[in-house]
């Protein structure tokens, strides 16, 4: 087995082990783990089937199999960036909504405290007026 195939298989197995371990420890969510498992599976397929990269390069009109692998890696990274950008946008919206809710709750809390202080002052004034 050529060294590059062995190295590819070891890298894919390492990715699989790390992803499964991170999921087990709840450090990685399932929606991200699925993407990394697909990447590892793709590396295993490319490393396991000897002529597949060359065949796919010839099929797509790319001159070298290495260029095909770089193009595939670029598309995978583009997909990762798009997915993470989408997630950041969603989290940004969620944080903004949460901050607005906290501000409204603080305002309401201040109103309730003011009303409570007024009622306590009124009750104390009545108690002072009642005492001889």
From TrEMBL:
InterPro entries for the chain: DUF2304
TM region positions: 6-23, 35-56, 62-82
Domain of life: Bacteria
Protein name in the entry: DUF2304 domain-containing protein
Keyword Transmembrane (UniProt): yes
Originating organism: Saccharothrix yanglingensis
UniProt keywords, alphabetically: Membrane, Transmembrane, Transmembrane helix
């Amino acid at each position: 087995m050529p060294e590059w195939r062995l190295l590819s298989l070891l890298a894919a197995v390492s990715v699989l082990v790390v992803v499964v371990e991170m999921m087990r420890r709840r450090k990685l969510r399932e929606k991200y783990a699925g993407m990394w498992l697909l990447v590892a599976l793709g590396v295993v397929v490319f490393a396991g089937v000897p002529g597949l990269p060359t065949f796919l390069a010839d099929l797509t009109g790319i001159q070298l199999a290495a260029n095909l692998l770089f193009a595939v890696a670029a598309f995978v990274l583009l997909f990762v960036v798009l997915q993470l950008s989408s997630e950041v946008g969603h989290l940004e919206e969620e944080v903004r909504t949460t901050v607005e809710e906290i501000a409204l709750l603080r305002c309401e809390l201040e109103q309730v405290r003011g009303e409570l202080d007024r009622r306590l002052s009124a009750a104390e004034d009545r108690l002072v007026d009642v005492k001889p």
